[in-house]
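Handoff note, outgoing to incoming analyst
You'll be picking up this chain. Sequence as last confirmed:
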Amino acid sequence: MAEHGLPALFTLFIWWFSTGVILYLDGLRRETFRWTMLGASTLALAGLAGLHATAWDTTTQGAYLGFVCGVLVWGWIETAFLTGMVTGPSRQACPPGATGWVRLRAALAAILWHELAIIAGALLILAASWGGSNQVGFWTFIAFWVMRQSAKLNVYLGVRNLAEAFLPDHLRYLESFFRRRRMNALFPVSVIAGTAACVLLSMKAAAVGATPHEVAGYSLLASLVALGLLEHWFMVLPVPADALWRWGLASRSAAQREGRPAPAPVA
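Most recent structure output, in case you need it:
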């Protein structure tokens, strides 16, 4: 069981720790963001270099390294968005009373550059590992992408918990595109699809004849999708998701003590 349990614990730690670090950095003063982005860009470049170097590494170590490198590239995407460096052509709140296509166009304008950056990141990873037999890093990035897109759509359509506490001050206008509802029609589809993907990946990891590289790689991906599902359930259950990252949100509390407005807690 260790060959499945260790990847799960490793994924859990990376998911929890990296999220907390990004939240902490994006809650600091805006003059620190240039250094934050410099560090994130350096790590992303290292991740791309690592993906190229391990593209043909089909050992257990290769699976772990590919996973970490994929996380580093995705970390740049999240950091660039939450610092406000890469968002969209519009930084305006949703027009009052907007519905339908008007609301959708405004929402897309608020995050368009971010979405294009994700596509660019996927293409860079694909180029860095092109032709290689170790594609764990690429599928790690894709898993992040799909689960995050699903989360964005569910928040846009309406869920119980909107996780406003995770938004830094300079992105507060995005709250106007959120909708608070008990649930929406997409949520069950997201959960069923995510559960099916998690089960299939777990079956691949436990398949007879799977190589150590496949066991580690599929176990890492299954764990990541499972954590994405957990994030989805946080949206509809009366459980404050920010409790897991109190330490990461500490920079927001510091901002409040210094007299700057801090995000409201999750309802």
